[in-house]
Design a protein that fits this description.
about 100 residues; alpha+beta; 4-stranded antiparallel sheet; single chain
């Protein structure tokens, strides 16, 4: 898993979503060691009924290259053009040391 750049985190997120890999999704969302509760939190955040469609649209747009990354000192915003009535979603990434993570 590549967390050295925002693009690396986005690619790892796409792979983990496709594989429904809760451990990887959990580790992309938080720095440090994982706890027992992190897999369930990742399930709710990425694969739950309320969020599944959101992440499907994000994954399709990322896979098609319809996104822009704007970095700043605190992290990065990823503007994802999902199209339709939703238009654009924004994802926040944070940096801790040399690694990037999906922010809440």
């Amino acid at each position: 898993m590549d967390r050295r750049t925002p693009q690396g985190v986005l690619g790892a997120t796409l792979s983990a979503l496709a594989a429904r890999d809760l451990a990887t999704l959990a580790s992309l969302a938080r720095p440090g060691p994982l706890t027992v509760d992190d897999a369930e939190e990742a399930r709710r955040r990425f694969l739950g009924p309320a969020t599944r469609r959101y992440w499907q649209r994000v994954a399709a747009a990322l896979g098609a290259g319809r996104y822009v990354v704007d970095e700043d000192e605190a992290g990065a915003w990823v503007r994802v053009d999902v199209g339709g009535a939703a238009g654009t979603y924004r994802l926040r990434l944070r940096r801790k040391g040399a690694q990037w993570f999906l922010a809440d």
